[in-house]
# Entry
Amino acid sequence: MKQIYTTLGPKRREELGMILPHEHVFVDLRTPDQPGYGEAEIAEVVALMVPQIEAIKRQGVTLLVECTTGGVGRRADIDLAVSKAADFPIVVPTGNYREPWIPAWIAEASESDLEQWMVSELTEGMEDTGVLAGWIKLSAGDDGITPLEARILRAAARASVRTNAVIGSHTIRGRVVMDQLDILQSEGCAAERFISIHTQEEKDFGLHRALVERGAWIEYDHVGRAPDQELVAMIMRALETGLGEHLLISHDLGWYDPAQPGGGIPRPYTHLVENLLPALTNAGASQDAIRQLTEINPFEAFAR
# Structure
C-alpha cells in the first residue's frame, strides 16, 4: 500500500484530503558558505510559521510538501518542530539544489556516496530527527545541466530506483527537463517518478505536452503570484488537452528567511483554496477535475 512519508509518519490516501505539493516553511537563498547560513532559533520559526499552517488547516488542506532542499537551507528539525506545533504533516526532501548552492561535501562526493546518502535519508531518516525524507529535490541551470548537477541527478535516479521516491527538479526550460529525463531513463528511472517543477515558466505549451507524453508530472506552482485569470486559462488548457492526470498546482510561497530580521514577512498558502479553485469552477472545471488536481495527483506523485 502506497504512503507519503511525512514529519508525522506515513500517511495513506484515505487519511488525506487536499495537498499543497510545492511550498516552503524555511528557506535560506544565501549560498552555504555564507556566515549564518541556515541558522535560526526554532521557536522563532514556529511562532512565525504555525499561523500560516493553521490558516490552511481551516481551509481543509491536510498536507504540505516542503520544497527546501540541501543548499538552500533545508532544516528537517525546523520542519519537524513546526509540524508538531501545528499538528500538521509536512513532507521534507533529500537531495541538493543547483550550482552555486552546492556545499563542498556534495561537490566532492562520488555518485555512489551521493546515492547512498539519499537512500539513507529516504529509508533511515534525516540527520538526528528520525524523520524519513519523503522525496528527492534537485535543480538544473537555466542554460543546461552542469557536470556536477548531472552527477547529483544520476545519483538521485539510482536512489529513486531503489526506493521509488519521486524526484522533483527546479528547472526553468523544457528542453533542459527533457535532457534530465534522458539521464534519468539511462539510469533505469521511469519518467513517471519525475516532477517538472515550475513548468509554467516554459512558454512553449508543446513541451508541457511532450513531458506528459513521456510520463512525467508537470507543475504549475505560481498560484497567488500570477494573475488568477492567466493561471485559470493555463490550467483549463491543460485539462482540455488531456494533461489533467499529470498536473500539480501550488503556490511556492511561505517562508521563514533567516537572512531577514525576524524571518521576514511570510506570504500565505491560502490563495489556491480561497481564490483559484472558485475561479476554476466558474471557468467550467468539474469538481472531479478539481479533486484530481488537489487530492489525487499530489498523493500519486509523492506516495511510494
